[in-house]
Design brief:
Bound molecules: coenzyme A
CATH architecture: 3-Layer(aba) Sandwich
Helix content: 25-40%
CATH class: Alpha Beta
Number of helices: 6
Radius of gyration: 17 Å
Strand content: 25-35%
Strand order of the largest sheet: 1-2-3-4-5-7-6
CATH topology: Aminopeptidase
Number of strands: 7
Largest sheet: 7 strands, mixed
Distance between the termini: 23 Å
């Protein structure tokens, strides 16, 4: 996929979610239900993704790094958008089909604990599956209980420990993997 194609996507889903909220409102349902949408990142999201990292990640990428990763053909970014607010999270994958590695996943601090991180990573893995990626590897700090819970909820399994993997602060990494089956059909 070219960078031009990547830059063109991503505005329609927000409109669609706003229409869903209006429809809920008209039907008497609570308009305050937090509806967010997962979609692939586009070029115009670069600054917002860097800002989320700067506010909420332990080792954030600056805008140039986000752009460099985004423009690579072997990466996949999914963002979470909240209508009326903007981006509130992102997740990124480095793909070497049929395998891949999670590069990062970050949800804005004020939006955590509502299932958004789980939704984001699930959407990322689904998009990767469409590109022939059925195996997702990742590393996580043993002390990062919320992230470990997200991975556990999505069926990732622990495969081992990488000694002294992290710095600032120094910590081992738990390595994890999730394998899925790609089902090919004629239709
Ligand atoms: C990891 C992260 C993306 C999760 O996002 P999130 O939107 O809070 O994720 P979810 O709400 O889907 O799930 C979080 C789970 O952790 C649980 N949790 C939160 N704090 C916890 C703690 N201290 N101990 C145990 N579980 C905890 C939540 O209860 C929830 O589980 P539940 O659904 O069973 O109740 C977010 O915490 C984050 O951005 N962290 C900073 C960046 C980071 O560490 N990324 C991971 C790099 S490996």
């Amino acid at each position: 996929m070219s960078s031009e194609e990547r830059g063109d996507r991503g505005t329609d889903l927000t409109d669609s979610l706003l229409r869903q909220q209006d429809s809920l409102h008209k039907n008497g349902s609570a308009r305050t239900v937090p509806l967010t949408c997962s979609r692939e990142m586009s070029l115009k999201d670069t600054a917002a993704v860097a800002a989320i990292g700067a506010h909420s990640s332990q080792s954030p990428w600056d805008e140039k790094s986000v752009l460099t990763y985004f423009l690579r053909e072997d990466t996949l970014f999914v963002v979470e958008e909240e209508p009326g607010t903007g981006l509130i999270g992102f997740a990124a994958l480095l793909m070497t089909p049929p395998e891949s590695d999670v590069l990062d996943i970050v949800v804005e601090e004020s939006r955590r604990g509502r299932g958004i991180g789980t939704k984001l990573l699930d959407a990322l893995c689904d998009q990767a599956l469409l590109r022939g990626v059925d195996t997702v590897f990742l590393e996580v700090r043993p002390s990062n209980a919320p992230a470990r819970r997200v991975y556990e909820k999505l069926g990732f399994e622990e495969t081992g420990i990488r000694k002294n993997y992290y710095t600032d602060p120094a910590e081992d990494a738990i390595t994890m993997v999730r394998r899925r089956n790609i089902i090919f059909t004629n239709r």
